[in-house]
Task: inverse folding
């Protein structure tokens, strides 16, 4: 079930989404999906290709930058690009935590918010970034 968590104006993190969620996601005004989940992480999860096809069919941009562990430069750049596009976007991974960390690192790289503001926004969405060096 689609359960987005707001991190701020026009940006959401979410646990794994399903192919059938894409029309509803598009109806919310989201314009881009950033998938931070590696294919094959769990049995039965939809593949990146399946989500991408559904996203594009719903008129959404789609980026896949898989994250295992801490987000690397490619994942942070993909989120920074989404932030800079200033269009509503949704990021997801298994729980939303890796996506939220990528967002936090992108926000700092772009100098869009300070550490306390980022941690507060993440906490408001249910993600604890208290130990993340920002």
Result:
């Amino acid at each position: 079930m689609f359960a987005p968590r707001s991190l701020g104006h026009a940006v959401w993190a979410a646990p794994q989404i399903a192919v059938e969620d894409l029309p509803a996601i598009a109806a919310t005004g989201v314009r881009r999906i950033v998938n931070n989940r590696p294919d094959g992480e769990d049995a039965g999860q939809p593949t990146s290709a399946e989500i991408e096809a559904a996203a594009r069919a719903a008129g959404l941009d789609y980026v896949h930058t898989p994250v295992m562990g801490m987000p690397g430069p490619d994942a942070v750049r993909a989120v920074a690009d989404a932030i800079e596009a200033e269009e509503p976007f949704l990021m997801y991974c298994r729980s939303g935590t890796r996506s939220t960390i990528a967002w936090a690192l992108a926000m700092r790289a772009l100098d869009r918010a300070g550490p306390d503001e980022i941690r507060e926004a993440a906490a408001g969405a249910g993600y604890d970034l208290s130990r993340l060096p920002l």
Summary: The mean pLDDT is 96. Residues 73-85 form the longest helix (13 residues). The domain at 5-124 is CATH 3.90.190.10 (Protein-Tyrosine Phosphatase; Chain A). The first strand starts at residue 5 and ends at 8.
